[in-house]
Automatic annotation (TrEMBL):
Localization annotation: Membrane
Protein known as: ABC-2 type transporter transmembrane domain-containing protein
Pfam families xrefs: ABC2_membrane
Keyword Membrane carried by entry: yes
Membrane topology: Multi-pass membrane protein
Superkingdom assignment: Bacteria
Transmembrane segments annotated in the record for this chain: 20-42, 49-70, 109-133, 138-158, 170-189, 223-241
InterPro entries hit by this protein: ABC2_TM (IPR013525)
Organism: Streptomyces canarius
Electron transport is among the record's keywords: no
UniProt domain ABC-2 type transporter transmembrane: residue ranges: 26-208
Keywords: Membrane, Transmembrane, Transmembrane helix
Length: 253
């Protein structure tokens, strides 16, 4: 346990070197806020209203950290040729990468807070801002479940170095199938796919909380989906490590 705490601490120090606060303040965080604002306005014009779209827009902005950003964690090891050192360590590769994901989880929390407190007042959704802040535990669950998906993307894309492609593809699939901005699903199959994607049930739980209807079942579903993605990531990391030991190559080509 001490080893993983040390990994998380050192990873956070490394993260601050690569992404210092002052740089995030003028680049990635404004981008996330503007993206959230964009989807809220889209929901207002084309969907079920700005209030309906707001929690989904916040969730989509979080994926920039938890799925697209976090998927670089293990991929960079392969690009820099340090994966063999990681495999030689007497630790779980999955737990090691989970510990190294802590900086991106913290970044996702910051993105959540900025989107809620800035976009809400800008769009006249002050009341929504209040209940979105109250729903922080649910958003934290969504951050963790989507982070598990980010690790799965990183592990599944390891052989062909396609983490950026798969990360963006998963984010867009979540938008299409998760009813984040509009409740209208054009293809029934998307509704089925959305049920196994991170954040779908979490966003539904936030909306249920705001409406005063039972939300705990959706919270449980979100947790189950998150565990499923975590298991998928663990299996993929293990298979990738076994293949790399057998072939002596981290990539397929």
């Amino acid at each position: 346990m001490v080893n993983y705490v040390t990994v998380a601490r050192l990873s956070y120090a490394e993260h601050l070197v690569a992404y210092p606060w002052r740089l995030s303040l003028v680049t990635t965080w404004p981008r996330a806020v503007l993206q959230c604002l964009f989807w809220v306005l889209i929901g207002q014009v084309r969907g079920n209203g700005a209030a309906y779209a707001f929690p989904g827009a916040v969730a989509l902005s979080i994926t920039v950290s938890t799925i697209i950003g976090l998927s670089d964690v293990s991929t960079l090891d392969q690009r820099w040729g340090t994966s063999s050192r990681v495999r030689m360590a007497n630790v779980s590769i999955t737990c090691l990468n989970a510990a190294r994901s802590v900086p991106w989880v913290v970044d996702a929390v910051v993105v959540y807070l900025l989107c809620v407190v800035i976009v809400g007042p800008l769009t006249g959704l002050g009341a929504s801002t209040v209940w979105l802040l109250r729903a922080f535990p649910i958003f934290l669950l969504m951050i963790l479940s989507s982070a598990a998906a980010g690790l799965a993307v990183a592990s599944l894309s390891a052989r062909l170095d396609t983490n950026v492609l798969l990360g963006n593809a998963l984010s867009w699939l979540m938008l299409a199938a998760g009813s984040f901005v509009t409740a209208v699903v054009q293809l029934p199959v998307l509704d089925t796919i959305g049920a196994v994607l991170p954040m779908t049930h979490g966003v539904a739980a936030v909306r249920a909380l705001a409406a005063g209807t039972p939300y705990f079942p959706d919270v449980v579903r979100e947790a189950v989906v998150g565990v499923g993605w975590a298991v998928l990531a663990a299996v993929a990391f293990r298979v990738q490590a076994m293949r790399a030991r057998r072939t002596g190559n981290d990539f397929a080509v």
